[in-house]
Structure to design on (916 residues):
């Protein structure tokens, strides 16, 4: 069925406002590397409309690509044919249940709106990431998003209580009730979480809420080695437990860049920098004192506690501006990696050495969430245009070889998409990929749902 | 292949100490309702031995039933033919990683030994349930065990970082590295968790550890209604957040039984009783004061704080002795149910009314973990022998009808096993069960692994 035929049929199924006149802004992906083409954009405004479109696709063998906020970094929400189904119009907060501490939302809700709805109800929804002003809950679930609060609250997977999914045959699975204990057969919810739109369309979710913080204390700590950083993390996690929300690592070079860019002085001078934050749901006047004393007594004297909200904001600006400040270095080859925390030091040493040997002019910007073992590992060659990408494959090879040697992962929080599907067989066994294919083919026998993503081509 | 032939072949594959002389103590299940027969008990002492047995079974079409501590309550670890593979000899603590806060263990480790190993390392492993002295980690994972600390720490599913599984073809999947962020294809770990031995044999796991409590405060609160109890739970969860570890409910009748049995006075007089406990990883002298003040200011004046460890123990004894104290009432028909907390009041009223109408002589003992919505709902008819079970089907029908009407689950923390597999189609859609069958048949095409459990017969 060609695009005109699809359009004709879909016009009968959907209402006019579900068929946007100008799809332009939905086609190019966030990284400007992938572009949707030869497809029809639809924006259903109800679960029933999603089901109608899906049934139409199933009956006519039309490919279908689900899209949320289109903020993904691996080309997962890009269509090359058939229908591009954007969830933006499914954007209602359905219910808040304070007894069960849950919020039930449409999949097209923007993350920031879910955070705001929680706050309005006197609660806290912890998922937080750079694109929270435009990314959508459905996409966060499909990619198992991570972000800033994983150390304390886990990834999106840990925050989902229940899901509503339109299967590739158009049938609805709806388990939105907040059940805190339930073991009735294989847990299919977790198969859909992280499935990147290949198994159906998530239309709604019930998510966990938490108590908001009443006390926040933020410290900047300089350490001479990753080893010292990991030692501090190990002991402070046991002392302050779930209060520890953030434990961010920055290299001397990363901080220099951001300090110059932000026009904010470095809080301390050191080879490695840590930004750590504690929160408490109770007012606790002495928390800052306890933290300062703890750092001092354990020999982390090269440290500063934020003495005001302004100073705290400065700490975070230094951390958050690293990305922006490195743009002058040229085009970066980025890596979304994570590993056991205990192996971060070896990874940085071994991988860094090999890269510097191979590319003497390379600059490496290292920062990230040491608290959960995930790093931003950005490499720059002195090439300012897209010719830098010519080395991407070779650089990826080196970085991923080292990350696998440290039992790490090549996809920490951005998922697989188009970008990394040829890497999947390196991190999953043949039996696992066969099982993934069996799941895919049971639900989507004609391979219509985001067909060229996640699973490697046969 | 008959049992003698199996034994002959297995004797060649395994060493003598992996073939126990007397299997008697492994055959009868915990509830004395199911018994293994016509099977050969093996106790491999290495992952390699497990693989050898599994390969033998796959090659010869021999059924295989994995068994941990044999403490299950739904007949899940009972074999009716082939091999009964008991994991008890795979019982080593493999590693503790304090930077990542994880412990890696053999599947046959007894839960209590894992708790003890964590404690020895200055950490806390939170899974805790009545059979912890004999149940095994592999069984806890296979059944997604719940227990006393779910309110704060989640079920076993939430505590598993990584798994090692021998697949039905004998191949090993091993993902024991502690990755706190990882999204590489469909999350198969969660398919194995809760799969009740139908998809392979879990041989090892990496589990989360936590900081131990430095402060514990325990209160007993009398309330006039479930409504009042849920209101308190709602607000106290937001005030004290993750400090709230236990929020246990007992009916007047349940407490009377236990008080008489335990020879401990009831702390307060009321229609409904709550036992709640807060813990904190920091020393916090004023926590008891804060809790008392909170209860008083919110109108929960009919309450007592434990003033000593002895008093705290008495509170818990009253709660824990309910099971033992009800034995004089006769044979109980038990229900392992959970529901949204907000619907507990309606369930108790509606289900109780119908049961009392149908069975005027019935006594109902209600208690459980209100904090996570799961209840022990035990019904007694004045029949002291097993004739009580004649009414089991009819009573189940009523209770489950009401629990489903409240969006609850018929299997909160004991899983499905043999006992409830004919109920699965009531709580999962046809598409979901088809997907479960597809998963099962991809991994275990000859249906050898715990074949008659979990999934309803075709």
């Amino acid at each position: 069925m060609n695009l005109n035929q699809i359009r004709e049929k879909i016009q009968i199924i959907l209402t006019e406002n579900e068929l946007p006149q100008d799809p332009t802004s939905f086609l190019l992906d966030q990284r400007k590397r992938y572009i949707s083409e030869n497809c029809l954009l639809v924006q259903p405004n109800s679960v029933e409309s999603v089901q109608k479109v899906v049934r139409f696709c199933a009956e006519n063998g039309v490919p279908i690509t689900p899209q949320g906020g289109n903020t993904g970094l691996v080309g997962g929400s890009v269509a090359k044919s058939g229908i591009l189904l954007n969830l933006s119009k499914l954007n209602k907060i359905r219910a808040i249940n304070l007894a069960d501490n849950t919020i039930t939302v449409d999949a097209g809700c923007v993350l920031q709106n879910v955070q705001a709805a929680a706050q309005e109800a006197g609660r806290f929804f912890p998922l937080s990431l750079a694109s929270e002003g435009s990314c959508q809950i459905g996409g966060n679930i499909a990619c198992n998003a991570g972000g800033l609060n994983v150390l304390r609250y886990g990834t999106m997977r840990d925050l989902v209580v229940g899901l509503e999914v339109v299967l590739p045959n158009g049938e609805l699975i709806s388990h939105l009730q907040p059940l805190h204990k339930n073991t009735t057969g294989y847990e299919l919810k977790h198969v859909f979480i992280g499935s990147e739109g290949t198994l159906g369309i998530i239309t709604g979710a019930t998510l966990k809420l938490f108590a908001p913080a009443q006390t926040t204390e933020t410290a900047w700590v300089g350490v001479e080695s990753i080893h010292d950083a990991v030692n501090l993390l190990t002991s402070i996690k046991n002392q302050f437990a779930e209060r520890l929300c953030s434990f961010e690592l920055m290299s001397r070079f990363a901080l220099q860049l951001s300090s110059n860019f932000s026009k904010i002085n470095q809080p301390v001078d050191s080879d490695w920098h840590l930004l750590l934050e504690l929160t408490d749901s109770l007012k606790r006047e002495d928390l800052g004192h306890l933290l300062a004393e703890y750092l001092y007594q354990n020999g982390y004297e090269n440290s500063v506690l934020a003495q005001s909200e302004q100073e705290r904001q400065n700490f975070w600006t230094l951390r958050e501006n690293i990305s922006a400040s490195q743009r002058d270095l040229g085009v970066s080859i980025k890596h979304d990696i994570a590993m056991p925390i205990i192996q971060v030091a070896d990874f940085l040493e071994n991988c860094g050495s090999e890269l510097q040997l191979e590319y003497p002019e390379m600059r490496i910007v290292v920062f990230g969430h040491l608290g959960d073992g995930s790093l931003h590992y950005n490499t720059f060659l002195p090439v300012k245009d897209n010719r830098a990408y010519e080395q991407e494959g070779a650089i990826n090879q080196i970085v991923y070889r080292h990350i696998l040697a440290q039992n790490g992962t090549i996809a920490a929080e951005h998922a697989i998409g188009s970008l990394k599907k040829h890497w999947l067989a390196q991190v999953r066994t043949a039996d696992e990929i066969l099982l993934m294919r069996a799941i895919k083919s049971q639900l989507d026998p004609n391979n219509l749902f985001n067909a060229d993503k996640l699973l490697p081509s046969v």
